[in-house]
Every structure is written in structure tokens, then in C-alpha cells.
């Protein structure tokens, strides 16, 4: 297996932009898929204009014309049908590797997680679809489970810290170890996987740049800001009990709360089968340095 030409879809998103940056800094030839109606621009990269409806025959022709070897999907994981069209076109065109939009805070391979968060069950469904295609053509897949987007999480309540308001929402005492990955770290992981196509084929891989507790994070936040944070103690059980019914009714804010809480209490990758930091040659990052950079301190 030899991967040279890599295509990315979703290149202006929270994750897509740093993944694109890492790919552009690599030795691969990079293309971005851009829908016909999109206003996005991508300087210094080959742009492949694709139909808004992701028509499979047209995508197949475009993948063939551009000799695409690998496709990285960084659109929302909830877009199941769009992902299936991309995957079908990749299979038809002889693409060798697909990354589904499995990136994120929680483990889509965990049955309890899929019960708590239907979004994760959708991600599992896409991975199951890829598994069903194994042995048909050249197509292989890699699912990359990243845990909370760690640095980005300080700009919102994903990590349960209100940095501007100097408030810390401490879940279940704050001593639960959880995994997290900075956006640049995730981008680098994608590159490392593509550089190791044989070792990473048809695998579910877990990574983290940080393995911390909320209390450890809080101590560093107070150090680098020079101010104490107000501690607000929360029960994960109570938070989920309140948020999940609203989430199931379509409340996006409630879904984000469930993701935030579950990504702390059920996202420790250190002992997961498939933990791939060593395989990919990735070293964990310094907590204080990451936090200083994330909050501009």
C-alpha cells in the first residue's frame, strides 16, 4: 500500500482546519473537497469542486481523475448519509484509506457510551459500514478516537471550565483521569497514520496529548491566570439525568453538556486496546504550556 494523494473534506471546521494544516506540512499531495455552493477558499492547495449532494458517480469520477489514495472526513459525525456517499465513491474509485468522522470526545466502540449518546451510535454505524466493505476493492479504514478537543475546550465549556468567568464546574470530585487531544496533535496523528498505512489498516485507534484530572487542570489554570476560580461541584449522574431528556428532544446545548460530562467520566484511553501513541510515535504535551497557549496567558 502506497499513499501519496490525500483528500480532505470539511477543511474549514474546528478540526478540519488544523488537520489540513498538518497535511499541508507533510510530504503528501493534498486536495480539499469543496462543495459547489461553498464560499470557502483554500490558498496553496488543490481544490476539487464536488456536487452539493455528494452524488456518488460524480464523486467517483473526481476521485479517479485526481488519483486520490486517502480520504479524511472531518464533517460532523451526525452526517451519516453524506459519509456513506463519500465512502461508496471512495470504494468505487479505488481509494485505499478512509478516515470516517469518528474523531471526538467519546468512545463510539463502547456500548454504554452509545446508549448514553446516540451521536456515538451513528459513528459506530459508519464504522460498521466500513467493516462490511473490507475485502471489497482496495478500501481500508482508520477510526481515530481523540477524546475532548483539549485546547479548543478552554474556549467553551467542553472541559467544564469557564475561563473568562473564572468558574470551574467540577464533576464527581474532580479526580477522574480523562484523555484529551489538542487540535494540532490530532492533525499530526492523521499524518502519522497515513505514513504507516499497513500498520494502521482497518483499525480503531485511540490517542491523547493529555491524561489529566479536572483538579490538575484547575491548579494550572489558577497558576497561569494568577486568580482563583470559583468551584461549583456537580454530579455526573444528576447532570446526565437533567440533560439527556432534553438532548433526546433535539436540544443541541443539552447534547453538548452530555458530551462534556461523558468525555470526563468515561474517556480514559490509557488502558484501551488500540491506544496508539507509541505506534504513531506521539509524545504527550506539557499541560502548562498547552493551557498558556490555549487561553493566551
From TrEMBL:
Cross-referenced Pfam families: NmrA
An example molecular function term from Gene Ontology annotations: oxidoreductase activity
Protein keywords: NADP, Oxidoreductase
Keyword NADP appears in the UniProt entry: yes
Domain NmrA-like positions: 4-242
Taxonomy, superkingdom: Eukaryota
Name the UniProt record assigns to this protein: NAD(P)-binding protein
Species whose genome carries this gene: Periconia macrospinosa
Lineage per the UniProt record: Eukaryota, Fungi, Dikarya, Ascomycota, Pezizomycotina
Amino acid at each position: 500500500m502506497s499513499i501519496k494523494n490525500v483528500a480532505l473534506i470539511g477543511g474549514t471546521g474546528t478540526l478540519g482546519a488544523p488537520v489540513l494544516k498538518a497535511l499541508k506540512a507533510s510530504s503528501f499531495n493534498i486536495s480539499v473537497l469543496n462543495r459547489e455552493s461553498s464560499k470557502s477558499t483554500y490558498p496553496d492547495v488543490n481544490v476539487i469542486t464536488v456536487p452539493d449532494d455528494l452524488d456518488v458517480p460524480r464523486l467517483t469520477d473526481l476521485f479517479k481523475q485526481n488519483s486520490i489514495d486517502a480520504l479524511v472526513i472531518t464533517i460532523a459525525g451526525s452526517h451519516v448519509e453524506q459519509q456513506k456517499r463519500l465512502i461508496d465513491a471512495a470504494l468505487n474509485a479505488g481509494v485505499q484509506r478512509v478516515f470516517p468522522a469518528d474523531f471526538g470526545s467519546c468512545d463510539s466502540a463502547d456500548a454504554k457510551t452509545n446508549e448514553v449518546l446516540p451521536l456515538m451510535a451513528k459513528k459506530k454505524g459508519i464504522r460498521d459500514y466500513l467493516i462490511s466493505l473490507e475485502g471489497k476493492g482496495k478500501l481500508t479504514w482508520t477510526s481515530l478516537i481523540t477524546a475532548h478537543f483539549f485546547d479548543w475546550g478552554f474556549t467553551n465549556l467542553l472541559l467544564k471550565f469557564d475561563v473568562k468567568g473564572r468558574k470551574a464546574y467540577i464533576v464527581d470530585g474532580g479526580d477522574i483521569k480523562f484523555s484529551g487531544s489538542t487540535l494540532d496533535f490530532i492533525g499530526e496523528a492523521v499524518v502519522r497514520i497515513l505514513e504507516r498505512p499497513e500498520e494502521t489498516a482497518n483499525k480503531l485507534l485511540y490517542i491523547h496529548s493529555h491524561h489529566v484530572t479536572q483538579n490538575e487542570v484547575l491548579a494550572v489554570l489558577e497558576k497561569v491566570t494568577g486568580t482563583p476560580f470559583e468551584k461549583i461541584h456537580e454530579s455526573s449522574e444528576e447532570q446526565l439525568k437533567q440533560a439527556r431528556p432534553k438532548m433526546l428532544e433535539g436540544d443541541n446545548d443539552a447534547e453538548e453538556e452530555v458530551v462534556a460530562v461523558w468525555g470526563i467520566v468515561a474517556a480514559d484511553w490509557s488502558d484501551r486496546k488500540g491506544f496508539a501513541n507509541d505506534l504513531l510515535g506521539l509524545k504527550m504535551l506539557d499541560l502548562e504550556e498547552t493551557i498558556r497557549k490555549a487561553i493566551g496567558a
